[in-house]
Amino acid sequence: MAGTLILESIVVLLALPVVGAVGGGLNAFSMGYLIGFAVVLLLMAGIQGRPWAIWANLGVQLVLIAGWVVYPGVGVIGLVFAIVWLLIVYLRGEVLRRQRKGLLPGQQRPPQ
Q1: Domain count of the chain?
Q2: Which residue ranges does UniProt annotate as crossing the membrane (predicted)?
């Protein structure tokens, strides 16, 4: 999950030249929003051991989707990563379910 946050921060920083060239141009608000959000994502990468971190990761995507105000492409980045985080939540739940039932490959006994 920390790796996903680092990749997401890189993608957010890559939006800087796009907003500058295609969007309304970089102003103090848009530059502060994008750089600040990338820093928040990098800081969140350090708290991924906490049990509530996955829900915080999903919640922060709402802030990125709200970046539609800065430039619609930033909102699209938020939607794409929201889908990625929903998939991570689903896969995490599936692994935990299988772990409780003892169905993971590492939990299987070798054939006799």
Answers
A1: 1
A2: 30-47, 76-93
